[in-house]
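Data availability (excerpt). All sequences and predicted token strings are deposited with the supplementary files. A representative entry, Nucleotidyltransferase domain-containing protein, is shown inline so that the format can be inspected without opening the archive.
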Amino acid sequence: MEHVPDHAVLSVVVGSRAYGLEVDGSDTDRRGVFVAPTRLFWRLDKPPTHVEGPLPEQFSWEVERFCGLALEANPTVLECLWSPVVEHVTPVGEELLALRDAFVSERACRTFVGYADAQFRRLDPERPRWKQAMHMIRLLLSGLHLVRHGEPLVRMDAHRDRLLAVRRGEVSWDEVDRWRRDLVAAFGGAGVLPAEPGRERVEEFLVRTRQAAL
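Structure token line:
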């Protein structure tokens, strides 16, 4: 796949610039989806499931890998589907975006809390990495919004000042931990997500996409 951009169907901006949490010097993180030509799967050497580049801080998934991760409620992948900054989209990409409700399910309760917990365990209360602490809280805010409203919260405008104060180390560790625990506890409330994602709808999309890429 030397020419992945030729097969890109979706490219979005993620990270701080999508969340509204950018500061001077923030990178522009891009994530995307590409569709490998179907005939390449007939070979012993299969197309890559993901690639980096060609731009700095850019990463793209092959469409089947992307769909698989999204069905498992991978937070990073799901947020791509709701990014407010879409830089490139084809008709196939538009169909993928229109399908995004099929990927969400109660699995998100486990994945968002699990990812945040993994970040928390890597933090040292004596020497916190405040940027990582900020993104841990942001992830929980995003996931809780998904559970309650059916879509992740990407733009953090309502929480921007408090989150950036965490990043600057202006919030005590005890307050950050209390905020984290309150958010985790809130995941136990009633939500709107279906028990399982719409796997059949996603598979139908994938089959159509493979047929069109022959």
